[in-house]
Amino acid sequence: MAWQEIEKARYDEAYATGKYVPVNEIRFYHSWLPGINFSKINTILDIGCGLGWGVQYFRKIGKIAHGIDISNRIVWSWKERKIDKFCEVASADSIPFPDDSFDLVMCLDVLEHIPCYAMQDVLREIRRVGNHDFVFLICCEPAHDKMPHDGSEPHICIHDYEWWREQMIEAEYINAPLDIREDHVMIYCIKELIDKQKRTSAGDSLLLYKKDELAENRKS
Fold first, then answer.
1. pLDDT, tens digit, 9 for 90 and up, residues 74-103
2. Helix, strand or coil, per DSSP, at residue 69
3. Residue 67: in which H helix or E strand, if any?
4. Residue-number span of the structural domain to which 145 is assigned
5. What is the CATH number of the domain that holds 92?
6. In angstroms, how far apart are the furthest CA atoms of the chain?
7. What's the total number of domains in the chain?
8. What is the pTM of this model?
9. pLDDT in tens, 168-188
10. N or C end: fewer C-beta atoms under 10 angstroms in the chain?
11. Which stretches of the chain are DSSP H helices?
């Protein structure tokens, strides 16, 4: 059985218990979103969108946001949030969108749930559908909570920060600096430098801005 079928069955069963809630994603949004300016971002894809909190948020602030998730046991939540027209059941290695469709592709607490041997296929597919910014939030340790239906470990690809950076480089992303948060690492990437003559780093070329940095840029 292919890894996609195995993982889909795992998460279908986990969500079916009613006890599996991706709380890390919600906590991340609450802590990260208030400090980020999205004014240069128009189109967004949330990979592994779960219950759809992120897609709902971005559509409320006027962005063209879509999501995919491997489990069809969460479609009820998409319908409840009135975003079911914008979310699809799909695997991260087979994303149902054309090349270069999104200004920002987000993948939050997802990659560690994918087999290590499939990582390059997944990263290259994510890169295919994005046209500029990518944000990856990755847990580098075993999960705090096990799968509710069988007690198994949710994280099946556990590595340190440098391993993940190397994976991004191998998949031909241009890396911005790492942001390490306790047991998580956040990696900002871009597809290519906007202007290689004027830009000195990938971090300078991100469409995303931290709000305090935007204020400083306006002063200068």
1. 999 999 999 999 999 999 999 999 999 999
2. strand
3. strand 64-69
4. 3-219
5. 3.40.50.150
6. 57
7. 1
8. 0.89
9. 989 999 876 677 777 888 888
10. C
11. 3-16, 23-32, 53-60, 75-80, 119-129, 161-170, 202-205, 211-219
